[in-house]
Write a structure and sequence with these properties.
Helix content is 38%, strand content 17%. By secondary structure, the chain is an alpha+beta fold. The chain has a domain of 49 residues. It has a two-stranded antiparallel ribbon. The longest helix has 15 residues.
Length: 77
Amino acid sequence: MTRAPLPEAIQPLMQAYLTQVAQRLPGLMTACYLHGSVALSAFDPALSDVDFITIVSRRCTPDDLAQLAAVHAALEK
């Protein structure tokens, strides 16, 4: 299976997400998969959002969820 390169427009966003989750919640994330328009090579920076699924190593606690919400809020800016 050939994997399409990650669009340049979302590389900084994904790197920031991966870094922040790893820093705030070490060991929680085991994988992150892009899907939607990015995975289908139909991403349009003017129209598309970035859809992804994060696989975690354990059930998230309320504090974990608060940390994840903080990551998302920081990335919205």
